[in-house]
Amino acid sequence: MPDIPRAVLSEHFQERMEGKRLRAAVFLTYQFDPGFFEQEVLPVLFDIAVSHAVAIRLVQLEDAIRSMPGQIAVYYDAHGLVSGDAGSSRLDIRRIPIRHKTGIFHPKNVLLLVEDAEADDEGNRPQSLLVASMSANLTRSGWWENVEVCHVEELASGDKTRLRDDILSLLRLVRQKSPAATDHAALEAIARFVSSTDQRTHRSTEGGLHTHLYAGTSSFPDFLEEVAGSRLRGMHLEIISPYFDAASESRPLQELLDRFQPKETRVLLPRSATDEVTCSPQLFDAIAAISGVSWGRLPKDVLQLGRSEDAGKRFVHAKVYRFFSQSPKREYVFVGSVNMTSAAHQNGGNVETGFLVEVEPQRRPEFWLDSDARERPQFTSEPDSEAATATGTRLLLKYHWDSSIAEAWWDHTAESPILRIEARGRVVGNVGPLPPRGWVQLDPAFATALADVLRETSFILVHGEADEPATGLVQEEGMSHKPSLLFHLSVADILRYWSLLTAEQRVAFLEAHAPEVALTQQGADLVATVAVKFANDTLFDRFAGVFHAFACLERCVDEALGQAGNEKEAVYRLFGKKYDSLGSLLDRVLKEEGAGDDVDRYVMMLCARQVRRESEKRWPEFWADHRDDARELDQLLEQTSAIRARIEAGQTGDMAGFLDWFERWFLSRAKAVAEEDA
Prior knowledge:
About 35% of the residues lie in helices and about 20% in strands. The protein has 22 helices and 26 strands. The strands form six sheets. The protein has an eight-stranded mixed sheet with strand order 11-17-16-15-12-13-14-18.
């Protein structure tokens, strides 16, 4: 039996993330299912036990994302959007479409900037970068169903590596192909880290080839020749690819044979789930007729969806080019996105990526593919390609939740027609005509309608661009100010939530307080809806509990702006519109939604004023950078006077004088007594 390495993709990433904490992430993909990505891929990157209920899981992930210092960005082919069963995107993730003029944007990479979860003896958290090259798209089939391939490299700060320049080149290419004025914060954070490493000048050390990244800056055969040409010549060659040119011969295969003169070559015969061959009969015959080349298939146990005999087969979507010799034992494997097509192999075709890795075989290497020289197979009439379709749109819409502004970008050299925008069967409005390749601010009425739609979905249909409506994904900015879709907590519940110490306590709290609609969605039947019990109202619960909650809020903001270096977390906590943001609490206090009597409301408003004042003393630059948000918060806090006036009106004596004295001492932070003064 061939020794084929195997792992579950999600579990492999979980293992690589063990003991690490995410700081920033960039994903490159051709096909992108935003709902599946958020609900099933993102949880792999965070050390949290997510709820089975999808709605609550999204709230947990929202909290996890805002607690990381950097951003998460997905760069995808504009024609590769997949509207799967999981729905649309809902989280604070940059979703950036790429239009590649000479082919498709086809890389499949994951770049994770991480730090150690535990600080060392000096209080530092060493950082590293996980770089994955794989064949899997960010879709359900890519991560759960297909046979895919993946290789992960890890770079530490200051490392010497052959990957430095190629990673930076790839990041520059991605940036160049993105729409203007795109927020590349995640990409820039990773580029800064990669720049801290040193580029190795030699391709190998002590006879061992260093791992190299193919970043699509040359043809694929030229890359192999430049990096390891003399090493690869005369070896056995094995090719696994699901897609070939729609032609009577394979020019990519012939070029590999001419360059590297392999002793024997086996090529995976691409088959559908029903075992029909997906290449043309002419191509099948042409490759079978080449001397030293044969078609092959993977072992049955690799292809089966389950252990039972009647289990279905998995589609082979992996892309592998494997060179090996048996004497001496040597093996070189290229894994990534490169299919057996001219667009993938030639310079100026698709954007492709992959790793060339030298493997140290434990025993004599053998072919993974069994010879598939049986009777002539059945051929399918289904098209055999992964070319871009015309379903994507040239229109990019962007909505800023923090300013209520909508913008449009038309990716064409000519002016756009008038475009009708729909979402979930509702007309949002008309856009255009738009000038070519320039951001245009849309009218407030359209922005309001778009914001209303974004509370349900980020998918849009664009009519008027082509004969059929085109699909797009709205980019959302300022997500801290997007209202929570699930929770509307009372004042007391927000205070209690601030006070919870562990992730497990917060999950139980969210599940207990989730609205009924959240517990009718996928996974909700696995959630035990047990009410969370709190102690009866006491003096401690009424005031000390309030003080404790605000102290927890202040500590969280200080930690975010201090050691964690996470301004985003502080923005969410202080200025956001989420279920547990300070602004949400004050809004409910002023609307008298379960906030007790005026004395309770007055104390809470004073606590908020104290947090605001003390925070600005410690972090003046942060508050200066967020003047507009601070002004909005101050407008809420100014309404303390109305609550105070009601208290004064309901009391006899010099209540105003007492409250002046009370506020002066309440808002003055007590100072620790020095030991020699005690």
